[in-house]
Specification:
Blueprint: E1 2-10, H1 14-21, H2 27-30, E2 34-40, E3 45-50, E4 55-64, E5 69-76, E6 81-92, E7 98-108, H3 113-133
Antiparallel strand pairs: 1-7, 2-3, 3-4, 4-5, 5-6, 6-7
Length: 135
Amino acid sequence: MAQASASIHIPVSADKVWALTGGFLSLNHWLPFIKQSEAQEGGRVRHLTTDDGAEIIERLQTYDNSARTYSYSIDKGPFPIKDYLATFKVKEDGADSTWVEWSGVFTPDGVSDGEVEELFKGIYEGGLEALKANF
């Protein structure tokens, strides 16, 4: 299995960061290339539409509000992967300081481990920079 991860320090409280990111359907509120997030299956599935019209369907696997973390899989998307599982974590790092981690494991489909690891590392890093820009 291939894997990728990224993390970032944000100089605000973990509660503020989680208030923006903690809803499974809130990705479009902080990730600029996600234009729409639509709930399906009672909110356990999010149907995302990107800037360029691509569709991504992600399924919530675990959710822990008190620990400020959730995991999700991709049911459908434009990515050359299968067996994708990502985890998003918001951790308190002091009174007004937060450490955010976004990571995933997956099996490449038709590409090398390195190619797909680079793809998702770029998505995670760009996403976390966009998140930080909200504060």
